[in-house]
Amino acid sequence: MVSVLLVIALLLYLAKDTVTQVYHSVFDARTEIGHVMLSELAKTEKLTVLSLYKEVVVSQYKEVPGLFYGTNMHQIHSVYPGRIDVGFDLTKCTDDWLLMREDTAYVKLPAVEILNQGGWYLDEAAHQTPIEEGTWTNEDYVRLAHRANALIKRNSELENCYQMAEDNGKRVVRNLLQAMGIKYIKVDVESRERYRPFTIDFDGVGHKGMHYDFYVSASDGSRYVKFVDGSILAYEGDIDDEDLYSVIDMFSYYTQGRDSRQWKISKQGYRLIINMVNLTLTKGTQAADAFVKSRSKADVERLSAALRQLFGDNLQLSINEVDRRGQQLYQY
Amino acid sequence: MIFQENRVIKIITYLLVCLLMASCVGGQVSEEELLRSINTTPMLYTVQCVAQTTVIERSSPAMSLLGQRTAIIPVEANIKAGIDLSQLKNIRISGKTVYITLPDPVIEIESTRILNDQIVTSVAPLRFDFTNDELAQIARKGTDAIRNDLGKYNLVEPAQEQAEVIISTIVKRMGLEAVFEKRQQYENRELFNLTRP
């Protein structure tokens, strides 16, 4: 009883106006910010003509066993702000990109593309998680961020950001050259046909434990992704990290809509997915090079076992470890 | 009797509302877009770099009676600098020479990243674990520190030099020659105004 009274007295004392300063200094956490390390300056020639600012909400649900019986549903909802810059990389210009013939300028620009560094569009430090129930690991947070990243890119592509950037870019170049005293200007932009966002066809969403086959078709050839119970086992064609996230994204979106309880991406499967950078395989493959992001040896062995199971024991596989910027670190 | 009937109706309505709410909770909205704005200002980005820092958060002295709670969070920010082409207005042409006054460079943070796989946390048994929201709030202090120091990173001069190189090659291709007129000195305080969020 005495101790309770003492605690109340202490709280009242701390809440008094006269000691606001003490209250703040005692209860505030201490934050130290280390030195800011700057990487080497890189020179670029990026002409950005369109910036899209977006905010997306990504959610995840997880089923955990209840304390006494049944199951509980855990959920997390995060809001991620992001920004996509679309424009021209002027280092990709051909030698004759600007030609003068009499009083007319002929400009040939490379295809518009997304210019963000390292394919990262999020302002991750500014994200908010208003709802978080249950326990979630750092890996879950990584996964949420990557899903938001892929979603922002996909939404921008669906909104036809490339066409908007192309139109705006032509106008910008025309204005710039007109200001320098050229009367007639003809601007031509390389077609983005081969970069068209791909669509994913799938049929028959099965139950847990069944095999999922995906045909990812793009205008430069079709790609094939094989899912087994939430893990990607193999894919054909050039599929990069972002393609994979889009696949996961679409997949979880559709399956959640139909039968959310059945679809879970296993931890092992997810790690395999997010860390694969590039792997090119066709059906008659005898040799393959896989590029993975920094992995433990057990993961690498699991990956090679999965690939050998699909493509036979004769497969000559070399697995290269690369860092986030794609530079080789180690060869297994 | 009437009073009792009213009560029964009330209870039934209450149960119906509960059922309705329960059915709403089950909705599996997994992703949606909230906000969208477009900026069509043409920017010529000429230099870029990555800034990295580590934020260390320690629990408050008052609460540390229950045990310590510490987090080490590395954050990264992609920075780029360039010039706003829509501000490129002062162009004079005399004969074969083009006199250009370059606008002030702009330094921006393009994206930020929390290096989730390198986060280290130590939480005493009696304390709550760090939530995702909390980690982000701590990481924001790091990116705010980077944002406040943008002017100190010596990005202005390289950005302007590279912009001159690019524009002069364009002008040369048109058979003309470019002469640049620019402000030589930037005070630190002014640099702060050059940054865009």
Overall description:
The complex is a heterodimer of chains A (332) and B (197). Chain A is an alpha+beta fold and 332 residues long. Chain A has three domains: 1-30, no CATH class; 42-195, no CATH class; 198-332, no CATH class. Helices cover 32% and strands 36% of the residues of chain A. Chain A is built from seven helices and 17 strands. Chain A has helices at 2-15, 20-27, 138-158, 161-179, 241-259, 267-275, 297-311, and strands at 30-33, 37-38, 42-65, 71-89, 98-101, 104-109, 113-114, 128-132, 184-189, 199-201, 211-218, 221-228, 231-236, 276-279, 287-293, 316-322, 328-331. In chain A, strands 3, 4, 7 and 8 form a four-stranded antiparallel beta sheet that branches. In chain A, helix 3 crosses helix 5. Chain A is extended and about 95 Å long. With 197 residues, chain B is an alpha/beta fold. Chain B has one domain (41-196). Chain B is 34% helix and 36% strand. Chain B is built from four helices and nine strands, in the order H-E-E-E-E-E-E-E-H-H-E-H-E. In chain B, strand 4 (91-94) and strand 5 form a beta hairpin. The longest helix of chain B has 24 residues, at 2-25. Chains A and B meet through strand 1, strand 2, strand 3, strand 4 and strand 5 of A and strand 1, strand 2, strand 3, strand 6 and helix 2 of B.
